[in-house]
Amino acid sequence: MSKLKITETALRDGHQSLIATRLKTEEILPILEKMDEAGYHSLEVWGGATFDACIRFLNEDPWARLREIRKRVRNTKLQMLLRGQNLLGYRHYGDDVVEKFVEKSIENGIDIIRIFDALNDYRNIKTSVEATRKYGGHAQICIAYTTSEVHTVDYYVEKVREIDAMGADSICIKDMAGILMPNVAYELIKRMKEVTELPIELHTHCTSGIADMLYMKAVEAGVDIIDTGISPFSGGTAQPATEVFAETFRGHERDPELDMDILAEIADYFKPIKEKYRAEGILNPKVMDTEPKTLKYQVPGGMLSNLLSQLEGQGAADKYEDVLNEIPRVRKDLGYPPLVTPLSQMVGTQSVFNVLTGGRYKVVPKEIKDYVMGMYGQSPAPVDEEIKKIIIGDETPITHRPADDIEPEFDRLAAEIGDLAKSEEDVLMYALFPENAKKFLENRGKPQVEEVEEYHINLVI
Amino acid sequence: MSKLKITETALRDGHQSLIATRLKTEEILPILEKMDEAGYHSLEVWGGATFDACIRFLNEDPWARLREIRKRVRNTKLQMLLRGQNLLGYRHYGDDVVEKFVEKSIENGIDIIRIFDALNDYRNIKTSVEATRKYGGHAQICIAYTTSEVHTVDYYVEKVREIDAMGADSICIKDMAGILMPNVAYELIKRMKEVTELPIELHTHCTSGIADMLYMKAVEAGVDIIDTGISPFSGGTAQPATEVFAETFRGHERDPELDMDILAEIADYFKPIKEKYRAEGILNPKVMDTEPKTLKYQVPGGMLSNLLSQLEGQGAADKYEDVLNEIPRVRKDLGYPPLVTPLSQMVGTQSVFNVLTGGRYKVVPKEIKDYVMGMYGQSPAPVDEEIKKIIIGDETPITHRPADDIEPEFDRLAAEIGDLAKSEEDVLMYALFPENAKKFLENRGKPQVEEVEEYHINLVI
Ligand SMILES: [Co+2]
Ligand SMILES: [Co+2]
């Protein structure tokens, strides 16, 4: 078997998961030449929540960050995460915006675009996959992993065939909730390898405590690439530690051949940065805790804690177990949507409503109506007919690709933002996050208003 | 293969590793009946640092804690950790004290005594093993795991034969530093199984990030028992999470058959307790971090951070790498002692001296002299002849069992403490921790002096 490849996640998912995506470009740049020498397959550095966080919290141009990173990383591939037709934003965008965004991502330095759709409805990623290939990028298509009656190994193998047919360059099993069990992964990867030549990458989170064992069995099954984070940005809600896998497989046939001395230097670089965010309270110590209830309820850790605080806010904490038992029923009603943003929030809210309002589907949020109307794409299994009737009455759901209903919109958006945009990248920023991008572009170049410093005085009497 | 057994460590190693052994008896008792129903093989509840912590920090009688635990745990075995001739204290004790301590531990409720010697010199555990058997306990003998030229799989297999010959009831591979690599464990356990019928238990710590994979490969190799902690007292410097292994092997041939609902209840019980200790600062968030440097340098994580702060204290932090490189040389000179308390501190200090004093072994602490004199037992390999000459000159090391030089001392200690001791248990408390036991016994029954409450005022100006 070939050498195991490693995607380093510290610069995207690592800090997104542990410190709310707050890593600054000035904290990233000084270590990049070193990271470029470590022997990584790729560095995940962009996409996901980083774009939004740059504009919203850091007063940084995300495009400029990408260009600065690319300047310093000459040998290692740069990778990003893209939510298909949603790009990095919160709605479906027009195909012209999607294509332009992909073009500009590649032009500014990205090599590999990891593309996923929450429902695994690949019509929602078609445009971004095609654009990636058109502009010379590597298109990695995700299987968003979940468990249900219909989400069998056979189901996923069928998805692999779809991915192959779309012309992907590689496949990612995206276990965003950390619920893929090691033995299931072993079988899944073995089966996938029987039907595809494409490299298979595995992505998980440590939240439930299963991640290291998952990677071990995946490597034994022949997975090509795993996602890990350098130790200070590993564990907890983030990925397993890079050094651990470099050491575990050192000298074995799958040896990833990472440079242990360089990994130690990278870890030493990030340690004080992590300590700073810990001291500032941005690294909440709870994110490092193991939450195996995720395995028991098949519900992501973050969703569990959100539900509990939602219920507590309404003085209904005693209904927690009822809601946890309602979730699988709602999932079944809705055709087993994977519990990933935004579907996890939608299913969670509907479950709370079903328990608290004294009747199932007496109250239905607009998002669930849109979902049943097919506006998010096709559900993994059909929505239950009776429930559908309750939710949308006699209306007929759409069966075409949701983005087919969206007119081209780049030119309109460019006109809207006008002179504030100095480049197509600026227009795209505005397309994704209209309010915050506008604020960012208006203030660009102006001297930063100094925040008034707060003096904390800790008196012990 | 038989069902995998689980030793739950939360009530000893879990809180010892994460919150400095501060769990109070009143926090332990309410959940014990529940823990008794979970399906554990054993609960580790006593020994290690818990005895000392009860007297020193909690104003609790450790013997009373044990009796209260035993009352509530009717079906599950109770387990403790004992440092051979050191018992739970800091010196070698007379054989009569050792025997009495073991007798009273079993009489007060212990079923399984895990016994270890830092050097794996089993003459140092002979008395405690024999006493355990004499008083009807289960004697588990440890292999303290370390790496070196002499610590080969063959070396450990030879240790297994010794353990077998001593009449042990089971064997524990004690990987206190978290450096046992998964593939090494696989081979080691397979080889051990060829030469012994005794059940094999594996104990590790998550510090280096390797623990879950270690357990997975150990289970595949046929290990009988693994040590895990319920999730709130798992991970970091403690053991892997119990629930994770219960879920991972559910439905497999090695299914530990733990009750997942009960495990969830136990976790829910301990969560707010953990939060309390976190809020009080007793749970240092850093203990949850992964420190893979342990794997690179084969030096326990705690020792790494101690060394660094020791050097920083002397303005010599720039010598850190030199000291890390000196440690393996010192270990070689001294016949490869395992880096476990107190040997880790001794080797660390000697390495610092060798680097900072401008000459190797120019300064030698008394403990190292004693070690070379054979006062700690036999080193795994002989001490280097030249180094020996430098350290002890023409003196001749002892070759007999160190405790052979200790007279019986129980009666003398009983006379010393006099009427303050109301039982043999009290005398043993005094034997182990003379100063703190005396204070504890003097204040027993007196009303507790209320600590003056501190008012913390946090002003933000
Ligand atoms: Co992720
Ligand atoms: Co331990």
UniProtKB/TrEMBL annotation, chains A, B:
An individual GO BP term: gluconeogenesis
Matching InterPro entries: Aldolase_TIM, Carboxylase_cons_dom, PCB-like, PYR_CT
Superkingdom: Bacteria
Limits of the Pyruvate carboxyltransferase domain: 4-264
CDD domains, A to Z: DRE_TIM_PC_TC_5S
GO molecular function: pyruvate carboxylase activity
Listed PROSITE patterns: PYR_CT
Gene3D superfamilies: Aldolase class I
One Pfam match: HMGL-like
Annotated GO CC locations: cytoplasm
The protein's name: Oxaloacetate decarboxylase
Organism of provenance: Propionigenium maris DSM 9537
Lineage: Bacteria, Fusobacteriati, Fusobacteriota, Fusobacteriia, Fusobacteriales
